[in-house]
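Standup notes, structure subgroup. Blocker cleared on the uridine-diphosphate-N-acetylglucosamine input:
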Amino acid sequence: MEKLIIQGGTPLIGSVEISGSKNSSLPILAAMLLCEGKTTVANLPHLQDVTTLLELLGSLGVELSIDENRYVEADTRTIHSLATPSELVKKMRASILVLGPMVSRFGEAKVSFPGGCAIGSRPVDLHIGGMESLGAEITIENGFIKASRRGRLRGATISLPFPSVGATENIIMAASLAEGTTRIKNPALEPEIVDLANCLNVWGANIRGAGTPTILIEGVPKMNGGFFRVMPDRIETATYLAAAAATGGKVRTRHVELSNIGSVLEKFRKTGGDLTHGTDWIEIDMQGKRPKAVDFTTGPHPGFPTDMQAQFTVVNSVAMGTASVRETIFENRLMQVQELRRMGAKIDLNGNLAVVTGVPKLTGARVVASDLRASAALVIAGIAAEGETTIDEIYHVDRGYECFEEKLHKLGAKITRLPD
Ligand code: UD1
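Run returned:
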């Protein structure tokens, strides 16, 4: 397995261009399956998860092409299979997002139970329940979810017991081609949901209220497709701000969408960093100082994103003072804590509550990356630490950060990837 070697102790300084959103790209790629005409998507990040979903679409027979601008064009007229290969689905939980579009448009889907990050049990009951509410018949056999329908799916009112991001996306996509009106109550409010709805509307759907407590979808008989540009990645943006905060640096993130990261910015402000912004950039300047410790609890949007918990825990690890970090979305998402302790972090762990007492300096160590965001956190810790850090199993980071080492390198990090 490849590893990263980091010589720490350098503040990150400079500017970094933010890529397209991973979590927006994945449902938008799945949504290509809904369209009869050609669809073109711009600003897709070059990431392992995106490649996996493109491979999955290709395995169904979707004709895909990429031009010199990295615009991806899809033509679904060549589809010859409605069963997804389990080796691709196991690589990534978001593969479940093809279920809704496939059963809604083609009347059938066979998707194996998904894999992905090891951050909790992550069931898919809300996805399955949503499809059933729209009239799909679902059976579970030998580790596969089989969905079918008689006639078109039918619009329904669906109240989600928890605002699951993926289930909201699957239901929106399936309902777009259903007969009649679908109301989703208590949907996820994440910006990626709004981006997906905007995209589907451009491609011919009729969706209102994305980003509000009720989403209304008037089913349409067909969608023609078109062009859509994926929004910037808010988690990547905040990850670079966290890297600046933890190293006492000054980093400007460019090509960002400010309105999407309010709750995180509020926490960055409390670190004592000087935050400034323009229409499409945000900058944090720590003026060489250690951050102040900041309490936070993760929650569904507009709460603090669970995808930033690990990185912000590192900021607290080198902060002045003590802060509590509570994870409420996933039951096993404080796995980076054990590795951070190897680097000298002072963290008491009690279930999903971590109490972090900042130390002036972490020290380099050999650590193992356990999932995507934990890997990013360890990289930040390695850059902030004194001495050398080796991070094993770094492949996780390629699932979610485009050109991570190159971008960090440009900001002054001393970071090298070594083959196994
Ligand atoms: C998405 C994001 C992921 C982020 C998460 C929460 C993508 C590709 N991934 O994941 O980066 O961390 O939102 O913001 O967009 N749950 C159920 N039953 C279900 C579905 C979910 O119990 O059917 C539970 C999960 O186990 C978890 C919680 O709901 O505890 C949140 O999951 P969900 O919002 O669905 O996250 P994902 O869509 O998987």
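Discussed briefly. The first strand starts at residue 3 and ends at 7.
Next: hand off to the docking folks.
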